[in-house]
Amino acid sequence: MNICKLATIITLLFSSFTIKAQTITKDSFISPFKFPLLLSANFGELRGNHFHGGFDIKTGGVVGKPVYCIADGYVSRVLVMAGGYGNALFITHYNGYTSVYGHIKNFSSAVEKVIKDYQLRHETFAVDLKFEPNFIKFKAGDFIASSGNEGMSFGPHLHFEIRNSQTNEYVNPLIFYKDIIADKRAPVAQLIAIYPEKGTGVVNGSQEKKIIPMNALSRPITAWGKIGIGIKAFDYMNNTNNHYGIYQIKLFLDGKQIFGSQMNGVLSDENRRINGYTDFSELKRNRRWIIRSFSLPGNPLRFVESHDDRGIVEINEERNYQFMYQITDAHGNKNQYSFTVTGKKSNIDPFIPKGKMLYWNRANVIQEPGFELAIPKGVLYDDVELNYKVSKDSSYLANIYQINDEPIPLHTYCTLMLGLKNRPVKDTNKYYIASVVGKRKNYIGGSKFEDGWIKANIRDLGTYTIAVDTIAPRILPLSKKLWKSGNIQFKIYDNETGIKNYKVFIDGKFYIFAYSLKNNRLVMKYPLSLVRGNAHNMEVFVEDNCGNIVREKYIF
Ligand SMILES: [Zn+2]
Fold this sequence. Notes:
Number of helices: 5
Radius of gyration: 27 Å
Bound molecules: zinc ion
Number of strands: 45
Shape: flat
Structural class: mainly beta
């Protein structure tokens, strides 16, 4: 790629965002690896509650591949956690960008030492440390980490991000690495969805959404009134069998573009907006991602361009409406799909809500006996018709409150208060708000107790009640024979509310044990730190989210 072409891309990237870009030259960033890059995930891929913020780079199915610094810079942050990134290294560069390396197995020794000292001093495994500029510096090409499979990673790879250092915006790394990643394969669509607007549109005579597989796209489709269109599609790349997120989507009606999206960057605040950008109920019910090519009224996204009425089309003439999708990857490979919707005058039953309505453009409060929910303005992506139902179940300590029969996404947390009906346990910390899905209950949170009410922050409108957890976590020692050599492992479980805290002391001294949410394992981090030969006293302490504690003692 020549510099001129890259400059165009950078201009494109920033012109619509009003963020000042610093001048970037072609060789601003080198590859984090010394082998050819193959991706298992690209930027902007659709994930639960977020857009994938970078590349997942394949590491040949193994951990321990050396990772190299992509440009001069300094360590600005490190993260150590049981889930998520596992271990992550943030390097701030002098060109306005920060690179992030996630799921890594080891940091370089200088960084590792700082983390270890902190963990010992604070008796903690989880770390989120920020550093002053130039405290630990790296040059382009320096060894900075070994790749791994830590945190919520299900197979060895490097999660690699480039962020805008000022705004923390996740930037598409392909902008910098396009010429070293081969891609001649175009994105492919799997289905089209047509959404009649409630009370103002019909498709094939029905007010239900219509899913049309690509091989059925030539069959007649009729519509009347207001409709929106959606698509399910994946991108592909050379030399891999993976599928990827779509870089650019354009929808045309009669030759004129009515909707477009382009994945150059995502702000962290925009991540949850994926639940309005895609069809949330389709994801929850059928585990598939359909991308809307119309905006929900309360869901602005900077990478989306919708023309006229949010991309909603009004079919008000008895004629053929010619639609065309164009889906393109960042290398410019593209596919186009055309289909015809025929306008056919139909009666449209007006929308008459059966339940209480919540409106996206104002604050909403629901108050019912034993139930209170405040939803601030700006939290709903669309108007919601509640399907509120109260039922009783003697295994719970409050009524079961169904706010809606399918989950409605909320942009931020909202405070839910439920009234406790009976109090079999004195300690109010043991009560918690649970979401109920069929026979299953999930811990949501809430040890805040006021005058018979339990509070918790919820992230979607589903079904909730109060449950009690008085059962302490369990500790299962693993391969005790190996303990003498420092290979000390446990499994720790808490079936109800999850593990909040744990500590391991050997001979009265705190030892760092890594905890992974992926396999519930506690593993001694520095086995060589154990003095050999002597008998040791070990104490393991584990606490759950309702304050139930287990302490086990072992001699080895
Ligand atoms: Zn990733």
